[in-house]
């Protein structure tokens, strides 16, 4: 189960299908090197804090 922010207090069921594994990801983030407001190392710490399986930094 994925717990969302304290503001929403919703839980989402993410079922694994036979032969597949569901990954929690954020595939679109920016840093100060594009149009974001934080350094890349902060984005990494955020991903760890959120327990993401996969994330990417999206820059131009």
Secondary structure: elements and pairs:
Blueprint: E1 2-3, E2 11-12, E3 25-26, H1 40-49, E4 54-55
Parallel strand pairs: 3-4
Antiparallel strand pairs: 1-2
Task: Please provide a written account of the structure.
It is a single chain. With 60 residues, this protein is α+β, with helices and mostly antiparallel strands. It has a domain at 25-60. 17% of the residues lie in helices and 13% in strands. The chain has a two-stranded antiparallel ribbon. A two-stranded parallel sheet has the order 3-4. The N and C termini lie far apart (33 Å).
How many extended strands? 4
Radius of gyration: 14 Å
Question: How confident is the prediction overall: mean pLDDT?
Answer: 84
Major β-sheet profile = 2 strands, antiparallel
Outline the low-pLDDT stretches: none
What are its keywords?
single chain, 60 residues, alpha+beta, two-stranded antiparallel sheet, two-stranded parallel ribbon, 17% helix
Task: Provide a brief overview of the structure.
This protein is of the alpha+beta class. The chain has a domain at 25-60.
């Amino acid at each position: 189960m994925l717990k969302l922010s304290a503001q929403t207090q919703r839980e989402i069921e993410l079922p694994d299908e036979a032969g597949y594994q569901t990954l929690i990801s954020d595939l679109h983030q920016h840093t100060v090197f594009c149009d974001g407001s934080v350094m890349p190392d902060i984005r990494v710490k955020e991903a760890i804090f959120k327990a993401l399986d996969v994330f990417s930094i999206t820059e131009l």
